[in-house]
Amino acid sequence: MAERIMLLYSGGLDTSVICRWLAEKGDEIICFAADVGQREDWAGLKKKAIQSGAKKVIVADVREHFVKDFVLPVIRMNALYEGRYYLGTSLARPCIAEAMVIAAKKERCTVFAHGATGKGNDQVRFELTAAALAPEMKVIAPWRDPEFSSVIKGRAEAIAYAKKYNIPVKATKSKPWSSDENLLHISFEAGMLEDPEAKPRADMFELTVDPMKAPNKAEKVRVDFDKGYPVALNGKKMSPAKLLEAANKIAGRNGVGRVDMVESRYVGMKSRGVYETPGGTLLMTAHRDLEGITVDRDVMNLRDGLIPRMAGLIYNGYWFSDEMNALFALVEESQKYVSGRVDLELYKGNVTVVGRSSPNSLYDPLIASMDDDGGAYDQTLATGFINLHGLPLRAQARRAAKARKK
């Protein structure tokens, strides 16, 4: 029986071939794409989807939603996966899948399909989001289907299949890597990057200039925050997406935001990824610094201890889970005083904080002063403080001494 299928469509070779393959089976295909800030020829994408066998093409503009409800919450968390990855693709996938579920319900689709391979993280992110938001929907993942893989074994067979059905193909060896873009970042993987010793080519990078070729003068930037959310750049208030776009341009022209790392995929393998996250690097650096004067020490330690767990849940596709909701509640509480401004200087790939201020500051210059504080801090109290904290250490030392005598 023919199915009404919504296909997550990127316009690339894989999803175009999958679209035709599903259509040839007699299914009705509606292609869905989400605009999360990638530079895309949307008219060309729609035309190619129809050429590939789609009955209808839907493009949802979710740029503001993506930044406001996915990117900025992670900046408030200071969440980095394995200490380095800004989670660009990890955040885009649940946003895209959420928009797809909304469209699928409106179009009365009972099945959704995607072009993610069985080796990557995206298959998990797409399907776990659908499981959380539309558990009744069935999933088709052709790259995991022996019937599909027996026909389309790899790139060569996919190109041949596309040519057979007159699907436009952009096969080129000039850029031996694959990339994925959204407003937060561009990621690069595969091809020449599968050799972890191979240095990325200079012409690969798109959002950042080579730090060595960046301007010879530092650029000053001011970021204003309200309860942990960045709201203005250099004194100008902007919407979340516009602010991130502006931050990308400023940081990008100063060579800020490049990361080259080998990470742990959820499916078990190690994978090399190269990322450009200029605006995200700038905003998270500023946010992290503002917390220094606005967040209590123990609250910060509690939240920071959970950052690896938060980042792992996001990376692995559990954005829409009870555990994430509980962590969001903790972050919300931790951010209620994180308002103020941070001044930074960008220079040849580096971000340096040079000043910060907040109406909610916990910093008392009189108490912290190394000069005469006028009695604001009674230094004699430190003797008892140290003695009390030294009690367990002295007890441990006596026990160790007894053990050595036996």
Q: What is the molecular shape?
A: elongated
Number of strands: 14
Mean pLDDT: 95
In percent, how helical is the residue content?
40-55%
Assess the beta-strand content as a share of residues.
Answer: 15-25%
Ranges with pLDDT <50 over ≥5 residues? none
Which H/E pattern describes the elements? EHEHEHHEHEHHEEEEEHEEHHHEEHH
Evaluate the radius of gyration. Answer: 26 Å
Strand order of the largest sheet: 3-2-1-4-5
Count of separate DSSP helical elements? 13
Largest β sheet strand count, sense and barrel closure: 5 strands, parallel
Structural class: alpha/beta
Distance between the termini: 82 Å
What does this structure look like?
The chain is an alpha/beta fold. It is 43% helix and 19% strand. The chain contains 13 helices and 14 strands. Strand 8 (219-226) and strand 9 (229-233) form a beta hairpin. Helix 4 (88-106) crosses helix 5 (122-133). The longest helix has 25 residues, at 381-405. The N and C termini lie far apart (82 Å).
Name the features:
single chain; 5-stranded parallel sheet; 43% helix
In short:
Helix content is 43%, strand content 19%.
List the helices and strands and how they pair.
Elements: E1 4-8, H1 13-24, E2 28-35, H2 42-51, E3 56-61, H3 63-77, H4 88-106, E4 111-113, H5 122-133, E5 138-140, H6 146-149, H7 155-164, E6 178-181, E7 186-189, E8 219-226, E9 229-233, E10 236-237, H8 240-252, E11 258-264, E12 270-276, H9 278-294, H10 297-316, H11 322-334, E13 340-347, E14 350-357, H12 365-368, H13 381-405
Parallel strand pairs: 1-2, 1-4, 2-3, 4-5
Antiparallel strand pairs: 6-7, 7-12, 8-9, 8-13, 9-10, 11-12, 13-14
Helix pairs in contact: 1-7, 3-4, 3-8, 4-5, 8-9, 10-11
